[in-house]
């Protein structure tokens, strides 16, 4: 027991030395740490603690992609194909194909052609299930796999668009990842204005260029219903009137290659844009054929502006004017560059912390840890004398090892995580207390110092393991079910349990054994 | 050097003789906690209810009354404002808005527009939508139940079933009374509190295991000692350690409570309470309960042999 084999002694010393090495960067200035890191291989020391958003400030956003909407949109697109196929087959129907829930429903008036039409419908979209009833009613919906696939793709695209939009804002080191099947987790360290980011993320930014009807006025359309292929679209400016627009899209935002904030001829903020080759051609042709007509620029279902086509616009570029401020023009340009979201995004959870609170939390956490540490160190020294001091040395190593492990694993340190460290400071000495109390008992039972220490360590060991494993169970469940800051608490607690067992059992034992062998005391100062 | 001895070596408190007092006290504590919980419930935070929490720091002392009346005109339902730690920091809590996830965000925007403060003034903004709130609530309940279950299985595996039952009764006592404390003081019960409760569960068991280990050891050592005496011996033998560890942990936690800042305060309260009640329950509840659960000495020897062999080797 007191014979420490060389390998064990070496192991303890190496672990402690590595601990100091990995923890060290946290006690120097940031620049120095970065400098050290640049000299180190990957995984080598030099990394500082990675602070959670609650400590460094920043925004945590959980977004949900309303992907069901995409399925309905796809249905909507298929209705035209269904209608076209029915027309080509010259079959009469009533009601006409329309969307009911997640199905396209219609009824043909010639039930004797049921089989023929059913086969025809199957060819419209292989991803759809076609159900035909005896009375001629057809129900068509996407197969489950197809619906899932459509949604999965929409979420994937959304993540890509979210990433582009956030990159455009110049946020450093954002974390964007899929969570579950339709959620996106976004972590933005250092962001000070989460409202702006949220506004940018929640806008679909679907841009279309469409003609304004020259056949009918909005008032007429409102009274008699919009003619087929037309719809009434409100203006983005609430004081402006609504527009009757063709449903047909001349060009959409998907054909844009660039958009920049600029100013119009009246020096008002505007957005200039450039089409890709296809978009430029389409737009050029449409404007050439329709000089004198109004066309509307529609963003997310609202008309931003509706200028008159004075000449054909052939250069493939243009300018959007509207009721912009410099900021809103810049934001719209950003959104257009990044592209439109395929589905609506909703923020379902937000946790933003300003840099001020983060700094205060770090300072308070540091002070609380140091004061707690000093209190425990003094208490142990008073209670157990020399042995207490040895336990204190082990406790200091324990903290070094926790910081080293957190830095090396780049585990996130959160405010509850700091609380976990403070709690560990208090509980880490438990193993030593158990051992020392046991040694005291053995001394009282009349054993010699060497024997007492030996027996104390041996007998306390199972208890220590039993007791720590239960806490480890609680901590690992916390890790599994917890989120964000709570997970940080679980991580430090688990690391703390493991390191405290190591330092209490190995480090103090090495010190106690060395001291006993050198001094051979007749009486234990415990 | 004279060392500080908190529990003298010859301490022989008759815990078993006074077990009825402890049982009555604990029963009252649990019943009162359950009653409080049923009568006035918990002050659930937005983590579980959904809703909005905004912490702002104003220049100079905050005009809480003025802010309350301006925000009250927004028609966002239940709004509570309170000074948070310092006179220039205000915590605004707004109930979950009807109308789904999007409605929460609109409310936040409305509040920020109305307050019209610099963006630096917003120290913290948290919104939890109804879906996430429900999920967090479920996850918290599962975590607590799973932790208790896992601990029970572990104790069962390591000791005999009697020990497992006694340990879990003590554990439930600690958890229930912590919930009772939160109900009594109407402290905010949030995710961090659940973390604290789970930590308390771990600590409570930790304490109990240490005493049980000694009970098991003594059961093997003193075959003819009456059980109450044997239990007393075991508790007194580990009392010094129990008190020492609780004291060092409390020292650290009190420092956290006083100096750790406002955000972490509820969490510290839960842990401090948990340490105190966990220490009490392992001594006054867990061990005396063994008396009623028929601990077999013979059988115990057989079952505990591997662990014993381990300790000797």
Radius of gyration of chain A: 35 Å
Any idea what the CATH architecture of the largest domain in chain B is? Answer: Up-down Bundle
Low-confidence stretches of chain A: none
Number of helical elements of chain B: 10
CATH C-level label of the largest domain in chain A: Mainly Alpha
Number of continuous helical runs of chain A:
14
CATH superfamily of the largest domain in chain B: Multidrug efflux transporter AcrB transmembrane domain
Poorly predicted segments of chain B: 299-313
Beta content of chain A comes to: 15-25%
Number of domains of chain A: 3
Strands of chain B, total number: 6
Globular, elongated, flat, extended or rod-shaped: what is the shape of chain B?
A: elongated
How would the global form of chain A be characterised?
elongated
The whole-number mean of residue pLDDT values of chain B reads: 87
Rg result of chain B: 24 Å
Largest sheet of chain B: 4 strands, antiparallel
**How would you sum up the major sheet of chain A?**
4 strands, antiparallel
Distance from N terminus to C terminus of chain B (CA atoms, Å) equals: 35 Å
Q: Please bin the fraction of helical residues of chain B.
A: 55-70%
Number of domains of chain B: 2
Gist of the model:
By secondary structure, chain A is α+β, with helices and mostly antiparallel strands.
Can you give a write-up of this model?
The complex is a heterodimer of chains A (526) and B (313). Chain A is α+β, with helices and mostly antiparallel strands and 526 residues long. Chain A folds into three domains: 6-56 and 356-519, Up-down Bundle (Multidrug efflux transporter AcrB transmembrane fold); 71-147, Hypothetical Protein, Haloacid Dehalogenase-like Hydrolase, Chain: A, domain 2, CATH 3.30.1240; 209-316, Gyrase A, domain 2 (2-Layer Sandwich). Chain A is 54% helix and 18% strand. In chain A, the strands form six sheets. A four-stranded antiparallel sheet of chain A has the order 7-8-2-18. Chain A has a four-stranded antiparallel sheet with strand order 3-4-6-5. In chain A, strands 12-9-15-16 form a four-stranded antiparallel sheet. In chain A, helix 11 (355-409) packs across helix 14 (484-519). The longest helix of chain A is centred in the last third of the chain and has 55 residues, at 355-409. Chain A starts with 5 loop residues before the first helix and ends in a 7-residue tail after the last helix. Chain B has two domains: 19-44 and 133-307, Multidrug efflux transporter AcrB transmembrane domain (Multidrug efflux transporter AcrB transmembrane fold); 51-128, Alpha-Beta Plaits, CATH 3.30.70.3400. Helix content of chain B is 67%, strand content 11%. The longest helix of chain B is centred in the last third of the chain and has 33 residues, at 227-259. Chain B has a four-stranded antiparallel sheet with strand order 3-4-2-5. A two-stranded parallel sheet of chain B has the order 1-6. Chain B starts with 18 loop residues before the first helix and ends with a helix. Chain B is α+β, with helices and mostly antiparallel strands and 313 residues long. At the A-B interface, helix 7, strand 18, helix 11, helix 12 and helix 13 of A face helix 4, strand 5, helix 5, helix 7 and helix 8 of B. Strand 18 of chain A pairs antiparallel with strand 5 of chain B.
């Amino acid at each position: 027991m007191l014979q420490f084999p060389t390998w064990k002694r070496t192991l303890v010393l190496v672990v402690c030395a590595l601990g100091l090495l990995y923890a060290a960067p946290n006690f120097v200035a940031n620049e120095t740490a970065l400098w050290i890191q640049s000299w180190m291989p990957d995984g080598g020391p030099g990394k500082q603690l990675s602070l959670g958003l609650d400590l460094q400030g920043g925004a945590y956003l959980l977004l949900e992609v309303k992907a069901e909407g995409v399925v309905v949109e796809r249905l909507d697109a298929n209705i035209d194909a269904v209608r076209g196929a029915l027309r080509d087959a010259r079959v009469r129907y009533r009601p006409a194909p329309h969307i009911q829930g997640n199905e396209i429903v219609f009824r043909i008036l010639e039930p004797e052609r049921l089989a023929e039409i059913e086969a025809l419908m199957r060819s419209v979209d292989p991803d759809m299930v076609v159900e035909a009833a005896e009375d001629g009613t057809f129900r068509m919906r996407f197969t489950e796999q197809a619906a899932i696939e459509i949604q999965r793709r929409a979420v994937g695209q959304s993540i890509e668009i979210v990433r582009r939009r956030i990159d455009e804002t110049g946020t450093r080191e954002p974390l964007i990842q899929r969570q579950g099947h339709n959620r996106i987790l976004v972590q933005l360290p250092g962001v000070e204005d989460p409202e702006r980011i949220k506004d940018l993320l929640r806008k679909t930014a679907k841009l279309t260029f469409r003609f304004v009807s020259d056949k009918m006025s909005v008032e007429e359309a409102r009274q008699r219903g919009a003619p087929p292929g037309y719809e009434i679209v409100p203006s983005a400016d609430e004081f402006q009137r609504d527009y009757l627009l063709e449903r047909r899209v001349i060009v959409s935002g998907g054909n844009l290659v660039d958009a920049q904030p600029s100013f119009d001829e009246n020096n008002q903020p505007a957005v200039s844009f450039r089409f890709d080759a296809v978009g430029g051609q389409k737009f050029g042709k449409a404007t050439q054929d329709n000089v004198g007509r109004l066309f509307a620029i529609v963003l997310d279902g609202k008309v931003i502006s509706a200028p008159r086509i004075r000449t054909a616009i052939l250069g493939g570029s243009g300018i959007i004017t509207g009721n912009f401020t410099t900021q809103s023009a810049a934001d719209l340009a950003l959104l257009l560059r990044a592209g439109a979201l395929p589905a609506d995004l909703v923020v379902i959870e937000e946790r933003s912390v300003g840099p001020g609170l983060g700094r205060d939390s770090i300072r308070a956490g540091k002070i609380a840890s140091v004061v707690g540490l000093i209190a425990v160190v003094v208490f142990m020294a008073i209670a157990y004398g020399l042995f207490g001091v040895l336990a204190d040395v082990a406790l200091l190593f324990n903290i070094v090892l926790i910081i080293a492990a957190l830095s090396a694993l780049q585990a996130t340190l959160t405010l509850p995580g700091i609380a976990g460290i403070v709690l560990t400071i208090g509980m880490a000495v438990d193993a030593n207390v158990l051992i020392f109390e046991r040694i005291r008992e053995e001394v009282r039972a009349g054993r010699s110092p060497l024997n007492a220490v030996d027996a104390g360590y041996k007998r306390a060991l199972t208890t220590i393991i039993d007791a720590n494993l239960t806490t480890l169970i609680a901590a690992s469940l916390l890790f599994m079910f917890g989120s964000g800051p709570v997970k940080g608490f679980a991580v430090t607690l688990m690391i703390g349990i493991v390191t405290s067992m190591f330092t209490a059992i190995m480090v103090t034992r090495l010190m106690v054994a060395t001291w006993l062998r050198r001094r051979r005391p007749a009486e234990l100062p415990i | 050097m004279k060392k500080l001895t908190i529990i003298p070596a010859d301490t022989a408190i008759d815990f078993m003789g006074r077990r009825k007092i402890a049982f009555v006290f604990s029963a009252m504590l649990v019943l009162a906690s359950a009653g409080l919980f049923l009568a006035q419930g918990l002050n659930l935070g937005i983590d579980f209810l959904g809703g909005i929490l905004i912490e702002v720091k104003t220049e100079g002392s905050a005009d809480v009354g003025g802010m309350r009346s301006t925000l009250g005109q927004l028609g966002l339902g239940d709004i509570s404002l309170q000074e948070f730690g310092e006179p220039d920091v205000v915590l605004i809590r707004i109930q979950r808005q009807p109308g789904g996830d999007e409605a929460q965000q609109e409310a936040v925007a409305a509040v920020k527009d109305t307050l019209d403060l610099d963006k630096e003034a917003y120290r913290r903004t948290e919104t939890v939508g109804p879906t996430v709130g429900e999920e967090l609530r479920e996850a918290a309940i599962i975590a607590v139940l799973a932790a208790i279950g896992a601990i029970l299985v572990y104790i069962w595996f390591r000791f005999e079933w009697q020990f497992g039952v006694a340990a879990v009764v003590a554990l439930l006592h600690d958890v229930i009374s912590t919930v009772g404390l939160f109900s009594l003081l109407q402290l905010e019960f949030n995710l961090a509190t659940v973390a604290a409760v789970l930590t308390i569960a771990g600590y409570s068991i930790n304490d109990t295991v240490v005493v049980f280990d000694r009970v098991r050891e003594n059961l093997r050592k003193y075959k003819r000692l009456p059980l109450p005496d044997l239990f007393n011996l075991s508790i007194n033998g580990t009392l010094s350690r129990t008190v020492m560890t609780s004291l060092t942990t409390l020292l650290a936690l009190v420092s956290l409570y006083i100096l750790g800042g406002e955000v972490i305060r509820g969490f510290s309260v839960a842990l401090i309470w948990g340490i105190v009640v966990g220490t009490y329950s392992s001594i006054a509840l867990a061990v005396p309960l063994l008396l009623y659960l028929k601990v077999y000495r013979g059988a115990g020897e057989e079952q505990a042999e591997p662990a014993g062999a381990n300790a000797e080797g």
